[in-house]
Amino acid sequence: MKYYIIAGEASGDLHASNLMKELKVEDWQADFRFWGGDLMQVQGGEMVKHYRETAFMGFITVLKNLRKIRANFALCRKDLLDYEPDVLILVDYPGFNLRMAKFAKEHGIRVHYYISPKIWAWKEGRVKKIKAYVDRMFTIFPFETDFYKKHNYEVSFGGNPLLDAIANRPNKGESFTDFTSKNNLSDKPIVALLAGSRKQEIERILPVMLGVVKDFPDHQFVVAAAPSVTEDFYAQVVGNRNVKFVYGQTYDLLQQSKAALVTSGTATLETALLKIPQLVCYITGGGRILFAIGKRLLKVKYISLVNLVMDELIVKELIQHHCNKKSISQELKQIVEEENYRTQMLYNYQLLDEKLGGAGASARFAKMIVQDLRAQ
């Protein structure tokens, strides 16, 4: 069968590549054409556009690139019709993908959505488009089943593919000594800093995280540097603080860490699945007023995926003005020094693993997709 896949960012490239790998197991004649990245390219098929050419974030950036965005839509529509796939598989990336879902549906192409947009937290009204244009939704969080059920739309939960990515990560057997030697680090216990991947986000949160460095002289603080951000930019943000950086080794860094300070997002879930005690730190732009407005619009109790999945406070969340040097230092002290506190968090992480369905999600999703197509 012929599969047309659209992934618009690095995480989508990762999960789509694992799905493609398993689709080839279920369907030995699988043929792929896609918008994605390097990991998808490894699985074979024809890449139309790399996600680096299509990722436009923020209102101003979108305005400046409207012509390119329109050209991308036109190219994708024509390419989709020329390819005549058995199914269009959309991976998150709702701004682009929901428009392509409508187009495909209007032209009789079956639409599968793999990894639901986070409409349960923001822009809940998009569920109307999903119900109208998506033939089958495959979700990766158990609470999404209840969300869509509320809207009278049946979805298919098959586990979370992050468990596959973590289980199959390279260097998972690497020793602490080998990792620190390779990256010119000391032998002190590591506190990992995951401050996001966007410059504005890093400028807001990283200096606050680094404010506690002097409170922990027996630990070394190491930033998981975003590949898209230059060393010069980090140097300006960090100044003369004693901190190290590693690029392209987030999982390697986390698995060698004693604790982590993490911004909200997928990174909180990755840290939990790697069994590293963490503190979630989050600061939005615009100060207290914009934060208060945003909080009213949000539909969820927590900002971290760990707490959302477990539906209780498993990891501490310090948000906006509560995210300050004093609060971070107090919580981090508990994490690195109080064994009972760490043990409880690690126990909850194990429950999280079980709730997410364990490894093998990519294979389960591939089987469901192929079965659905063969039933048509």
Polypeptide structure, described:
- The protein has 376 residues and is of the alpha/beta class.
- It has two domains: 2-159 and 360-374, Rossmann fold, CATH 3.40.50; 171-355, Glycogen Phosphorylase B (Rossmann fold), CATH 3.40.50.
- It is built from 18 helices and 13 strands.
- Helix 10 (199-210) links the parallel strand 8 and strand 9 (220-225).
- Helix 5 (94-106) packs parallel to helix 6.
- The two termini are 12 Å apart.
Radius of gyration over all CA atoms, rounded: 21 Å
Distance between the termini: 12 Å
Shape call? globular
Q: What is the CATH C-level name of the largest domain?
A: Alpha Beta
- Low-confidence spans: 289-297
CATH superfamily of the largest domain: Glycogen Phosphorylase B
Count of discrete alpha- or pi-helical segments spanning 4 or more residues: 18
| DSSP strand count | 13
Estimate nothing, just give the exact number of structural domains: 2
| Class computed from helices, strands and strand pairing | alpha/beta
Task: Give the CATH architecture of the largest domain.
Answer: 3-Layer(aba) Sandwich
- CATH topology tier name of the largest domain: Rossmann fold
